[in-house]
Structure formats: structure tokens, C-alpha cells
Amino acid sequence: MHFRVAVAEYLPFLNLEIQNGTVIMTGPVAEAFELLANRVNFTYTLQRAENDIWGIKGSNGWTGMLGMVSRNEVDFALGPFTLTYDRWSEFKLSAPMYVDDVEILVPVFTWRLSLFNMLAIFDYKVWIVLFLSIILLCLMLSIIEKCDNPDVPFQMSCLKNLWSFTRTLLQKGKLQRPEGYTRTLLTVIWMVSAFVMSLMFSGLVLTNLLLRKARKIDSIQDLIADGNIQPIVEFQSSIYSAFRRPLRKNEIRPRNKLGSMA
């Protein structure tokens, strides 16, 4: 028996060369196929697929090696082929020798330290609440002082209280003990709040320095949502055909974001 076999280069498993117009293959796949030919006792002629592609189903039929099989240009094609629904529906596939998972490979996340990394420890809402709390406490204490002593300038009282609360927030101590129970209570509440905020901030800074947040890509949806990654797949491969298939209901197509390598 003699067979016409479609092949495509698949390094390092299958290497193809042209010698005197004849396709010569080497590599582990070639050795396994040669062993099969000797045991079953058949001869073969190799035909290389254009652009070394496996093939997908398009508007004009199948391309690549599968197109050669579909047009009866060859008797069968030498894989490995990934099993897809379209291929299983239209071609007779041999039993799989092994199963390999399809994975998404992304570049290593690079972390850069800047001033804004420190500000990003807290959400902007936390910084807004912190700022408004200082302003509110300054106004409350200034109004209380103005009621107790009308001769004290309101603007100077606000600036003094602002400076005092800022020193407390930065853990620089307090200049003097406040007078009156109300002012003492407000000052103590602020000191405790500032102490808790400082502990949380220092802990989160240490966590971000030691345990850096890495980008997490676990699905096609994560890949689409990340605007800094350009997906690249092999041209007219099984994954390429999966991205081009008709959409299901409520499904997102990544085709517009897709790049391909020949």
C-alpha cells in the first residue's frame, strides 16, 4: 500500500526539509511514523501543507492539512491535531496518544515603586474621609474655643487645631493638653483614630512591599478585561478557530483584540 500524507513542520517534534523536490521529515514524530510504516508495511509520499498550518473551517472550506484531506489531495494528515467539534464532525480522527491542556501564558508582572504607590495603599474614599474628619474636628474645636473665649481669633484657632491634629496623625506628639472635657474627649477620639489608621497604613505598606500583587489571568474573560495584554495565538490553529466560531448568547468575542503569529 502507498499513501499520500500531508505534513506541517512542528518543531522540535517534526522538522521538514526539501531535498531534490522531495519532502524529508526528521524528529520524534517522523521516527514514530516510520516505525508504524515498517510494522504495517506501507509506503508513503509526503506533501507539505502551505504555510505549515493545521487548518480551520472557513467560508470556502477547510484550510491547511485538513483542507488537503477534505479535497482528497492526500489520504491522511500527520498531526498532532487538537480535537475540536468541527474536526470531529467532518474527519475520522485516530485515538489520541496523549491529552495536553491549553494554557494562557502571560509576561512576568513588573512592579515599579513610585510615590503614588504609597498613596494607593488607601482608596481615595479613605483619604477624602480622613481629610474631612480633620476639617470637621478643627471647626468643632475652634467653635468651642470661640464660645469659651470670644477674644481668640477664629482663623488662628483653626490653624492651631489643624497643626495639632496633623502632628497627632503623623505620630509627632501633642504640643499641649487641651482644656475642657469636650475638647479633651474630641482630642482623645482623634488620637485613637490616628493611631489605628497609622497601624493599618504601615501594615499595608509592608504587605505591598513584601507580597506584591500579581496580575491574575485565569480565563478568556480575564484576558479580555486586561487592557495591557495583546493576546497572540498561532494562525489557523485550533484556538484560532475557537475564537472565530459563532457567538453564543451573552458571550464576548476576543477576536477584535486578537493578534496572530504565522
TrEMBL record:
It comes from the Eukaryota. GO terms for molecular function: ligand-gated monoatomic ion channel activity. It is a multi-pass membrane protein. This is Glutamate receptor. GO terms for biological process: detection of stimulus involved in sensory perception. Residues 2-106 form the Ionotropic glutamate receptor L-glutamate and glycine-binding domain. The keyword Nuclease does not apply. Gene3D superfamilies: 1.10.287.70, Periplasmic binding protein-like II. GO terms for cellular component: plasma membrane. It is found in: Cell membrane. Its main location: membrane. Belongs to the glutamate-gated ion channel (TC 1.A.10.1) family. The gene is NCL1_41952. Residues 124-224 form the Ionotropic glutamate receptor C-terminal domain.
